[in-house]
Amino acid sequence: MARINRINAVLMIGAGLCISPFLVGAAIAQEVHFTPNQIMTWPTRSFEGDTLYSIVEKSGRRVLEAKSQGQASARYLERDIDLNETPYLHWCWQVSNTYPGLDETTKAGDDYPARVYVAHKTGLLPWQVESVNYVWASTQPQGVTWPNAFTQRAQLIALQSGEQRVGDWIAEVRDVRADFAELFSDSPSYINGIALMSDGDNSGGNATAWFTHLGFSSSKDAPTCP
To answer: Which residues face 197 on adjacent strands?
Structure first.
């Protein structure tokens, strides 16, 4: 199943063929922050069953929980984000476990206990979308990048890897435009969608991820995790 390619397309559905002036104005006017409660209102795109999303108390804070038991579904938001004003994507995440033994460069191994990704339209057609996927890998080494097994238009970066930091809250900050420049030789001024998920449908794996402090900022300072 060309999951990432389909997610790329679904992020653009309803976004129109041009950038929304209202959303662009909102992005320019202030930094963009998504609370767990707001993310719970985002549409869900199911690919193989439904990852269970809920708000839970963890480490003294309300966070978003994504529990996959062999399922794959994403929470996604169609929104234009101005990378000139807010180029840094930040969030905190934690996972319960990884999937040992997967070859994540193959279709059978395209599962991650946690991922956050952003999409950029490159044309008018729904499939003309490039995405950068920030993943908590199971076997790919930290810092490695590779193309998704289903489509070259999705590139992955292993921000965390393996069991060493399982159970820890990790703060992430990424210069989204710099990542697109490195992976696609393109430096977009806007991205047009963001999504997150936990999935285990290809391998039949079970994992739970927790997310908080998701947003775009003009500062490269890392968020303070729970």
So the answer is: 74, 115
Residue 4 pLDDT grade (very low, low, confident, very high; cuts 50, 70, 90): low
Asked whether 137 and 209 are in contact (CB, 8 A), the reply is no
What does the angle CA 170 – CA 146 – CA 112 come to, to the nearest 5 degrees? 45
Predicted model pTM:
0.89
Helix (H) or strand (E) holding 36: helix 36-40
Query: What is the pLDDT at residue 3?
Result: 56
Distance, in Å, from the CA atom of 100 to the CA atom of 165, rounded to the nearest integer, reads 14
* Cα radius of gyration (the chain): 16
CA–CA gap between residue 28 and residue 12 (Å, rounded): 21
Q: With CA atoms as reference, report the closest residue to 211 among 77, 138, 102, 113.
A: 113
Residue (of 110, 91, 94) closest to 102 by Cα position: 110
| Domains of the chain, first to last | 3-217 (2.60.120.260)
Q: What share of the chain is helix, strand, coil (3-state, %, to 5)?
A: 15, 45, 40
- The strand ranges marked E within 103-181 are 112-121, 129-137, 145-147, 154-161, 170-175
